[in-house]
Design goal:
24-stranded antiparallel beta barrel; 45 strands; globular
Length: 785
């Protein structure tokens, strides 16, 4: 089970160490004492989770936390004290979290897997720009999660129920090298943290000020506390934080990280004499990270490994007009990834498929954030197989005033004589304490053989971030000829507008209903040419959303969607209807119904983070579009997740994505998709864990017909669209030893089993046969000089 405060071997019953009355430098957040003169000591301490060494007795003390979520402005129910000081080479944080109302949630977990635990998050902004921060999180045992926060005007409401988020969610892609240790105590828990300066990028000034805030998540209540008394009715959470001032004589030293990587892989498959393996040859690659200055870092890589540590989770397409997005996972590309964040995803590093070599420069100079990436891809991934694709990407952002900014992006992909070039500008202006405006304009120039094309992308948005009333108005267009081959464009040739208004009411602390939100969303999509000619929208949506947070961490949402979809000629360009009239068979173009009206009902449920369990459920039912046959259908859509923690070292996570389409004329299935996935992890120690993942992917549809009009069969590219089914099972097994980011040993096995073509009986279970498998070993070691 999780670790409540009851095991004598793990719990200290000694009185709490030095309290506020013993320390001179006290900064009370609720009194707006947010500028911290952090003391500097020529000392080092042992990171053992005990704040009993001399520097801690003279450190600055941060106290007086306020509740931020679900209701802001109240004094925190549970007391938190954070000690901070620095040495020439590191900054130190000590946490005493007092817990008088419930058991502490703490497990031995892998990195970034502590969301179900009580945790402390240090938001550190070494550039003092109130726009981005490094997030260093720890649970009561010192298990780490880390990442970055970049506030660039992202929408904080959305999803199926329109729930409004309190702040921008950290991106956990990056891993920073820091040391932490924690322990349970008689009053709660205590954590000790050391962050080496060489793990950070910061200003070049002799005397510096850094942004700082501390966030505490209390799982038994579901509350989130903040040292700085932040308010929800602000366009920025980071700008409401405090600061560490007077940092001087910082000695980062020479930052040179060498990270050689060796991978060996054996691929298995059916051969002439049975199952056979192709071992290939070991691949040697590596990464180099050099801190050119305090605020600029140069990274290089040769043959970076892909290390199939865990396959991308399966997704199915709800709307086939939109491409699926998969996040970046490779360590080289993740480092400094926040510097390449661009509205519209104009930069998407997964476009570099199998890089031979790459280099990038990231950092911040004189208020300007810079990211430059150059990569050479393998010839095998080029269209003709004879030229190496070359990518060059540049991103720069300039701070304006307290919260505003302007940015530019340029990408260049060259394959032989062909190229794709994209240039764009974007910006954000914040004013009036509640309001912000964002905008973007980009153009692309593409040449493929003798053919050239160019197109534009543009967007604008107006936001009001209010405590009780908020809104977002946005409109964005992508020309049909716009191409971003170094980025990710989900769909081109459309204009999309969104008018989102939401009202939120808050109950008092201890009230059964802590907050409730009602939202009204008007969502329209035009074909680009139709919008330019002031024509009618193709898709029209009106959503009424409600979400309610209950005492203890429960959340319930309910929505009604009224939608109409117009026939998409581009999607069904290759479709025909095979008619049989009077014994004569002929074909005519498939034109479908001009418009399909729908009405969907949505229910969402989120449980609290119980000691051993938490889960989420999304259920959508009603009448929705059947894209298989362009007709209205009765649908069921289920997305469910559950996490079960039977012990302090074991985690079982399960997800289910399911949808089906039943014809309204006769109730038969038009199509079905199902992806159940189970992951089991056993954390042997802080550095060692075992993981097993299993995923079943099923996609099937019936013989297609002109369901909304003639019921005659459909042809796709001249061939009868007969029933189709694909079924497969993927499994991944992994042994992981990772004492720190960069030093890892992975030993893994993966396999895939597919349904043989002659066994595809639609809408029934199909036995699977192993089709491929693989073994791999990866070893890398981080040398820090």
């Amino acid at each position: 089970m999780l670790l409540p405060i009851l095991a004598a071997a793990a719990v200290s019953t000694a009185p709490a160490p030095a309290r506020a009355g013993d320390i001179e430098l006290i900064y009370n957040g609720r009194s707006n004492e947010l500028t911290v003169s952090v003391p500097r000591f020529e000392a080092e301490v042992t990171i053992d989770g005990r704040l009993d060494e001399a520097p801690w007795m003279r450190a600055a003390l941060l106290t007086g936390f306020s509740q931020f979520a679900p209701l802001d402005g109240l004094p925190a129910a549970d007391s938190t004290e954070v000690l901070v000081w620095y040495s020439p080479t590191a900054i130190y944080f000590g946490v005493r979290a007092y817990e008088a109302h419930g058991a502490v949630h703490a497990t031995l977990a892998d990195r970034d897997k502590i969301d179900a635990d009580d945790n402390i998050q240090i938001l550190l902004g070494p550039f003092h720009d109130h726009r981005q921060a490094i997030m260093l999180g720890v649970n009561p045992l010192g298990i780490q999660k880390d990442g970055t926060i970049v506030e660039s005007g992202q929408a904080l409401s959305g999803g199926w129920d329109g729930a409004v988020a309190a702040r921008v969610t950290p991106d956990l892609s990056q891993d920073f090298v820091f040391t932490s240790k924690g322990r349970l105590t008689g009053y709660g828990y205590e954590v000790e943290i050391r962050v080496p300066l060489r793990s950070l990028r910061y200003q070049a000034a002799d005397v510096q000020t850094w942004d700082l805030n501390i966030v505490r998540k209390v799982q038994h209540s579901g509350y989130e506390d903040s040292w700085a008394p932040a308010r929800r009715a602000q366009p920025s959470f980071l700008a409401q934080g405090g600061a560490l001032e007077g940092l001087h004589d910082l000695r980062r030293g020479v930052v040179l990280d060498l990270n050689p990587v060796v991978t060996e892989k054996a691929l298995g498959g059916p051969g002439a004499a049975g199952w056979a393996y192709d071992r290939g040859t070991p691949q040697l690659g590596g990464n180099v990270r050099w801190g050119v200055t305090n605020n600029l870092t140069l990274n290089g890589t040769a043959r970076p490994d892909f290390a199939e540590v865990e396959s991308d989770a399966g997704q199915f397409v709800v709307d086939p007009r939109f491409a699926l997005f998969f996040p970046e996972r490779r360590p080289f590309f993740l480092d400094g990834l926040e510097q390449f964040s661009v509205p519209g995803n104009l930069i998407y590093t997964r476009r570099v498929l199998e890089p031979v070599a790459a280099a990038k420069l990231t950092g911040k100079l004189a208020g300007t954030s810079i990211g430059f990436l150059s990569a050479v891809d393998d010839r095998s991934v080029s269209p003709g197989g004879g030229d190496n694709p070359v990518y060059n990407v540049l991103r720069a952002q300039r701070d304006l005033g307290a919260q505003s900014r302007i940015g530019m992006a340029y990408t260049d992909r060259v394959v032989g004589a062909d190229y794709n070039r994209v240039a764009g500008i974007d910006g954000r202006a914040v004013f009036g304490g509640l309001y912000s405006v964002t905008g973007q304009l980009a153009g692309s120039l593409t040449r493929t053989g003798a053919r050239g094309q160019d197109g534009t992308l543009w967007s604008s948005a107006f936001n009001r971030t209010g405590r009780n009333f908020g809104m977002r108005w946005s409109v964005a267009g992508i020309d049909p000829d716009f191409r971003a081959l170094s980025g990710f464009t989900s769909r081109t040739g459309i204009v999309h507008s969104l008018f989102d208004h939401h009202w939120t009411w808050f109950g008092g602390r201890g009230a059964p209903v802590e907050h409730s939100t009602v939202g009204l969303v008007v969502d329209h999509t035009w074909q680009y040419a139709n919008f330019v000619r002031h024509g009618d929208a193709q898709d029209k949506k009106l959503h009424l959303n409600t979400s309610t947070g209950l005492r203890g961490g429960w959340a319930i949402g309910a929505s009604v969607f009224w939608e109409t979809f117009g026939f998409d000629n581009g999607l069904y360009a290759g479709y025909q209807v095979e008619r049989t009239i009077g014994g004569v068979v002929d074909t005519v173009p498939f034109t479908g119904s001009a418009r399909i009206p729908n009405r969907d009902y949505v229910l969402t449920l989120t449980t609290p983070q119980f000691k051993q369990f938490n889960g989420t459920l999304l259920y959508v039912w009603g009448q929705d579009e059947n894209f298989f046959e362009w007709a209205q259908a009765n649908i069921d859509l289920i997305q469910a997740s559950v996490s079960f923690r039977p012990g302090d070292k074991v985690r079982v996570e399960g997800t289910l994505d399911f949808q089906d389409y039943r014809r309204r004329t006769d109730g038969t299935y038009a199509g079905k998709n199902s992806i159940p996935r189970v992951k089991v992890e056993y954390q042997v120690s802080r550095s060692i864990f075992l993981r097993v993942v299993g995923e079943y992917d099923l996609a099937e549809h019936d013989d297609l017909r002109d369901e909304s009009r003639t019921f005659f069969p459909l042809l796709v590219d001249g061939t009868r669209a007969l029933a189709s089914k694909s079924a497969s099972f993927h499994q991944d097994c992994l042994f992981s030893y990772r004492p720190n980011p960069g030093t890892v040993l992975f030993v893994g096995y993966g396999s895939q089993a597919d349904a043989p073509p002659d066994a595809l009986n639609r809408f029934t279970y199909t036995p699977l046969v192993r089709s491929t498998d693989h073994f791999f070993v990866k070893f890398s070691y981080l040398f820090r000089t």
